[in-house]
Amino acid sequence: MVESGSLWGLFPRSLREFPIDLTLIIVIVVVTTLTTFVSVFQRSPVRIFFGLVFVLFAPGYAFIAALFPEDGTVLQSRDDSEGEKTNRRIRDQFGGHSLQTGINGIERIALSIGLSIVISTSFGLALNYTILGVRLPPVVVTLSVFTLVATGAAALRRSKIPPENRFLVSYHEWYAAVRSELRNPDTSTDVVLNVFVIVAVVLSLGVGSYVMVASTQDEQFSSIYILTEDNDGNLVAGNYSSEFESGESQELIIGVDNHEQRPVAYTVVAVEQTVETDGNETVVMSQNELDRFASQLSHGESWRFRHDLEPTMTGENVRVAWLVYIDGDVPPQPSLENADSSTYLWLTVSES
């Protein structure tokens, strides 16, 4: 029988020496991605836990690890209040004071949480100005790519530092350092900072938990939108033709997003209507069905299809609407009022 130590030796040296903390970051990214895109995990507590760690810790930790690959916990040996001696690697030989050229464990954790919030928010704002929008799949993908790139950079930078100066996660030393910093801070400023860090961590976890649970339980909807291609072939929400001649057509791209927290069978009914306005009320005078489209989507998936729009009705008040119905429940007379979701364009169609 081959011993476990011998089996471990079969792995490449680069894999065996890969930092354990960066390995955990990669595991968090992989598990979060699976719980986002694999339907069986989407409503499980695993998703909430790893989602919180992913958003509030992983991106910032990977970024800090890339910025500070060296061991910043450089303190002297001293006796703590319980008489235990805490060993540190480098000591100040002049005056007996401790040296610290980088960041210690508690600072690394605090900065990781703060930067994770900043990074996640920044990516959300950036996605808001793209056709992807602030939706769970693109947010997870962009944060995952950023975190994995930062993790790779951190591993590369650490490998170029001498082992004795390289940052290494030693859980016993981290625990002793954090406990010492909390119990015996050097200055009153450290006391304030420690309290601030603890409060920030608790608030972040609390707010994050509420948001994750609330979104998992309450955010159930479907959305539909209209896109066109610009001159460069990019999809944009605009550049719609509002004036047509009878027989003229324009290619549109219709998008549907599933946020129902479950798989859904979608039917999209495209209708054209002539309408009149009576005060604040819009009255449909006549309606004609143009086409139907259908697809099955898992939660978080998007569906885009092309529709060659060619109105057959003429007039100044022609409305073309795309009506979304879930689970195939299309009524005999589809309308904006009975659709689960809808979007529309106003057109002026003249005789050719």
What does this 3D model show about the protein?
By secondary structure, this protein is of the alpha+beta class. The protein contains nine helices and eleven strands. It has a five-stranded mixed beta sheet with strand order 5-11-10-7-8, with no helix packed on it. The protein is elongated, with a radius of gyration of 29 Å. The termini are far apart. Mean pLDDT is 78; it is low at 74-99.
SSE inventory with pairings:
Layout: H1 4-9, H2 13-16, H3 20-37, H4 45-56, H5 58-67, E1 78-79, E2 85-86, H6 105-128, H7 136-159, H8 171-183, H9 188-218, E3 221-229, E4 235-236, E5 243-245, E6 250-259, E7 264-278, E8 281-297, E9 302-309, E10 315-326, E11 341-350
Parallel strand pairs: 5-11
Antiparallel strand pairs: 1-2, 3-4, 3-6, 6-9, 7-8, 7-10, 10-11
Low-pLDDT stretches: 74-99
| Total helical segments | 9
Order of helices and strands: HHHHHEEHHHHEEEEEEEEE
Assign an overall shape: elongated
Mean pLDDT: 78
Specify the biggest β-sheet: 5 strands, mixed
